[in-house]
Amino acid sequence: MPLVDPVTMSSSAIVKGAVAQSTSTTKSTPGSQATESSTTTAGSSSSLATLRPVQIKQTPAAQTVRHALPAALTALYLLRFDALVTNPVPVMLNALPVVAAFQMTYALLCLPAAGEPASKSNRKPRPGEKKKGGDIGSSTIITALLASVLTSIVTPFLYFAMVLFGAPFLTHGSHTFLCAAHLALLTLFPLFYVHGVDSAAWAAVGGFRAPLDETFGGLVGGIVGAWLGAVPIPLDWDREWQRWPVTILCGAYGGYLLGRVLGGTLFWGKKF
Amino acid sequence: MSFRRNGNLSSTLLLIAANVLIPVAIVIFATGFFPYKPLLPGLAQYEPLDGYGEPPEAPFDKLVFMVVDALRSDFVYTTNSGFKFTQSLIRHGAAIPFTAHATSPTVTMPRLKAITTGSVPSFLDVVLNIDEGDESSSLASQDTWLAQMKAKDTGKLVMYGDDTWLKLFPGTFDRADGTTSFFVADFTEVDHNVTRNIPGELRNDDWNTMILHYLGLDHIGHKGGPRSPHMVPKQREMDGIVSQIYKAIETQDHLKSTLFVLCGDHGMNDAGNHGASSPGETSPALLFISPKLKGLQKNQDSPLPDAEDFQFYSTVEQSDLAPTLAALLGFPIPKNNLGVLIADFLSIWPKKADQAYLLHENARQIQTVISAASGTKTFDGALPAESCASPTSDYEQLACEWQGPSNNLMSARVGDDMDSQWALPVVTWLRKAQELMSGMASNYDMSRLILGQITALLAVIFSLSAAIKTVSPTRSLTPLLVISIAYSIMMFASSYVEEEQHFWYLATSTWFGYLTLRGFKRANTTFPAHLLLTAFPVLASLRLLRAWNQTGQKHAGTPDIVKLFIEPHPHFLWLLVGLTYFWTHRQLVYSFHGRIPVPINYPVMTGLVLAAFTFKAAFTLEDAPELVVEFVKSSLLDFTRGASLIARARAVFVGLGLVAMAAMGFILWEMRGAGGNRKRSRRKKGPAEAITTLQHLYTILALTQSRTANIPVFLIFNLLYWFLSSEIDAPDGTGLSTVELGISSLLLQYASFFAMGGSNAISSVDLSNAYNGVSNFNVVLVGILTYVGNWAGPVWWAFGTVVLLGEIWRRDQRQKRLGSGNNGKRGSDEKEEEAEAKQMLEGGQISPFKTYVAVTTLFTAFSVAAVMAACTILRTHLFVWTVFSPKYLYCVAWSLVQHLVINVGLSGLLFWLGSF
Ligand SMILES: [Zn+2]
Ligand SMILES: [Zn+2]
């Protein structure tokens, strides 16, 4: 069984930094983020055109935000947990803009916007040249806005997917929808920011063939976490937090943060 | 090559060993877990008690015993009850009310056993309750108060109502009219058949015992729950009968010493079902009624406000009825009784010596039971004081504690002056003995439990190594192992056992989500189109299945598709039902196409499907008339008016049998043709297609045995089946592998069981179709019909899997031929195909059927071992009789019937037939 399907391979697999592909095949580690390293291919299948793992920007601001935001999200979650249990809908609704701001900051400061940064650095691969820190140009902001629009478009579909996997359909509509919105904001927004609407990239993500990085790790973690969140619901402990959708949201946040941290460090560049 | 063959042989042997060990383990464990309780034989006689005179005179000589099935305590005692007359009797002291605690399993037969023998029936009585014709459940040879009343020879025994009594006491009743509860939609006729006998019998003076057992109230519960609009009118009807009998006792001279007992055999839960041990189910009402009882001056308040726990007045054990009746009617206490004489009645006997006699007789009888159980003669002489300082067993402890009560009885006998509470220590001691003897924990045979456990673990090891040897690459077993291990862990939590369906639903959706996503790799469509056209229909089908019937304990009775969309819209239901039958008809005709000429094929299949459809309509008209729409009634039923349900069902079964035989005939014919004459044309169908005929015939059987509201589920099954089939035919070798098909089949078998309303509770066993076409009880037939009625979905998937396995097998052969580049010559093609088939069967290559068996065996071994471990470790847990024992019985059904008989036996036969 071939690992990569001929169909996908031939048609549209994208290469971020296609120029560099032939020049460098050394495996990079997330620690050595010189300019070149962002152009190297990851993984052993360098002969195939594949998706590269996303590099976090090297600016001090990006590195700070990268570590500070997961902590801030965790703090926010723990702080609002009791309120979430008693009053899920308003709490989730109010938290949504805060989480959106967090994710927006994260994307703008840490992530390469769709297409642009990688190609920019590829066009002038001068060794030793430091990329200008935090150059949030108008185009990146537009990318971020587009990504948030895409995220909100995809939220109803995510809601629908949750219903298909067993979320209540006739009741708890706003609960499930807000939960889907949180999940989309956490896991899909960074991916939209990084990949845009690149169908080949999304095919790789959807087929679980993309290499692990903070964005894809976060997606996998968030989905697995939300999935595992359904496990404690049937228990007869009669706790308030067993109510829909507290455990799902809890699993989504926990899984997302874990997946993002692990995907960005330990498993960076690895594939399933 | 030879290594490969050896590996294949050894894995086959391991697989066989595992499948032999599974039933062995189940039997060994069951004999230790459900021990056979030794019963004292013979009828109790009055034996002289040391120092006492004659047995005290009994205040009553006749008994009217009225059972209202599922009469929960609050139905009689609370403000919104319909029992107004009975409540007035309570206020006047003519009725002494109790809440009688019924132990789990709260189903009729074990409850009647407890009521009549005074003992606690073993859990296996549940199985025998379903298997109603079993001889061993008969009480004809046991000591009961019925046998004692008969032995008194002061009158005849008569019985009107639930024929469970006739099955329990064959030959005991002189006059009887049994009613059956085939159709729970019957609220009135079933009770009218009892009531019409009462006036005549009240005039007769030739009986000393009259049993009445009303089923209507139970039926209303099953149909509409305790708050059904039919409930209070039914209670008023029952109250009217109480009034009728009470007034007869008051006025008629030959009835003046009649004791009238009104009780429920069990209660019901909020959904109107029973079987488990929720407070509602275990709290039936119990009343002793007679004008004579006014003398006790026990006037009590009535009605009472609602109580959450259903405990009203004082609570007694259901088994206490036996010794109390013995005292009140004057006969020896039945030998195996564990009940305690209800102390409220002691003051009927003015003399203390008489009261002491009754208590002492109760104690002595229970001591005999204890001695028999413990195998010692603990109560024969006085125990040495030193052994009482540190008793070695519960029995010894009990014997030591007997000293105090025994002294009290002694003083009461000789007429010493004593305070009014003198009897209390005796009753306390009796209760303690009752508790000890009713507790099951001491009865486990630990060595058998452990031996069964070890055998099951061996089966796990064997099946695991067989699977590793059979399946390549080994890592494709990972999902199966994850499912098996997660399931095993889950078995240790009672709530996960009760809510097992969630595990299968989530696992199935995830697995099929993975399969559909994976399918995108080779799809020629865009991602959204693939999602819309493949992933969405598959996952939506699973979501519909999940919501079809709400099952489990936690949310029992909450709305589901059946309650929200099917029951309120019968037209919609019949549209879907008609579509299901039409679809099956189409497939059946198609599978015979080319074998038999159209002028025969079409009418025969149409007749068969119409017979099945009209049977379903006629059955539903009896079972759930509110679901039958006018159109169905007028067009279909009038068309075949007059045919009885039994005749209709038999017509369907005979038709199915004949067509199945024809299909088998074609298979054998074509097998012979294939062996001798190689020149069968391409257009002619092979046995593989004949197997699909059997599959469609089974679909008709499954429809016949399923509840009407569940029939549309088979349309959903067909959609999922079509998806799996399309996955097999993937062009480039990325299609479904045998292991993946095995996992899909396993998941769908379990998910479909729960989707059709199954659960791990005894109360969810659906008996409504168990007697289709059966007039005289036949254990085998009723057993098969019950199994198909409850496992219709899982068996359907087993059939489907065999057909799909055949598709995989032919696909692999095709690919091998293409791979060897030998696809030029058409003539030798077929020869080779057959040669390869032979080779495959003889072990040159692993047959997909073997891989499938390896998959199901692995899971079955894991589940059996896990359920046994859970039952052993949690054997003293509160839930062992309500959650884990029923789970064990379900696990037995899954592994012995579904796995061994269906997935290995039947599927193996079909695969073998289809592989020629
Ligand atoms: Zn009953
Ligand atoms: Zn019932």
TrEMBL record, chain B:
TM regions (residue ranges): 12-36, 449-468, 480-497, 527-548, 596-619, 645-669, 708-724, 736-758, 770-788, 852-875, 887-913
Gene3D superfamilies, A to Z: Alkaline Phosphatase, subunit A (3.40.720.10)
Molecular functions (GO terms): CP2 mannose-ethanolamine phosphotransferase activity
Domain (GPI ethanolamine phosphate transferase 2 C-terminal) ranges: 441-915
One Pfam family in the UniProt entry: PIGO_PIGG
Biological pathway: Glycolipid biosynthesis; glycosylphosphatidylinositol-anchor biosynthesis
Lineage: superkingdom: Eukaryota
Membrane topology designation: Multi-pass membrane protein
Keywords on record: Endoplasmic reticulum, Glycoprotein, GPI-anchor biosynthesis, Membrane, Transferase, Transmembrane, Transmembrane helix
GO cellular component, one term: endoplasmic reticulum membrane
Subcellular location: Endoplasmic reticulum membrane
GO biological process: GPI anchor biosynthetic process
Main location, first listed in the record: endoplasmic reticulum
Protein family membership: Belongs to the PIGG/PIGN/PIGO family. PIGG subfamily.
Function: Ethanolamine phosphate transferase involved in glycosylphosphatidylinositol-anchor biosynthesis. Transfers ethanolamine phosphate to the GPI second mannose.
The protein's name in its UniProt record: GPI ethanolamine phosphate transferase 2
Organism taxonomic ancestry: Eukaryota, Fungi, Dikarya, Ascomycota, Pezizomycotina
